[in-house]
Amino acid sequence: MFNEFKALFDFLKRVFFLFFMPQKLVDLALRHQPNSDKSAVQNSVTKVRKSIRRGLRIVLITGAITFITYFLLRIFRIELSHNMIILMRTIGYLAVLWGVLSPSGWGIQTSGGESLAEIFDEEWHRFNYIMGLFMVLLSYLFELHF
């Protein structure tokens, strides 16, 4: 039981370092793997931080667009039936699932990382997440009569 709490504490400490003290996380990684290249570890930490910020931005923007859409539909008195809400939610979950399962990843990886296939793969993945999140959030807002 104690090991589980220690593992959780260590994870939370690393997350805190990632967000607020990235250099400490780099130092911790270098202590854990002393043969690692410091600049490579710093680049990895920077990439992870950018990825998390981008993901948070996408979620916040999608949430804001969902609320605006919901309130506009309410202003124009557009109601959805219960079956339509369930269908919207199902399509949203399927879009998110498609986004999770569809990336090609290493199969199309190039040395530069900026090929048309890689860019399209990332955009398709992001599009599925955004549309899925939008539809699921909107369906819940309609169901709650917020």
Description:
The protein has 146 residues and is mainly α. It has one domain (37-144). It is 80% helix and 0% strand. It is built from five helices and no strands. It has helices at residues 2-20, 22-32, 38-75, 82-101, 116-144. Helix 1 (2-20) packs across helix 2 (22-32) and helix 3 crosses helix 5 (116-144). It is extended, with a radius of gyration of 20 Å. The chain starts with a helix and ends with a helix.
The major beta sheet can be summarized as: none
Q: What is the residue-mean pLDDT, rounded to a whole number?
A: 89
How would you classify the helix and strand content by structural class? mainly alpha
Terminal CA distance: 42 Å
Instruction: Give me the count of strands.
Output: 0
Stretches with pLDDT under 50, minimum 5 residues: none
What is the helix tally? 5
SSE string? HHHHH
* Shape assignment: extended
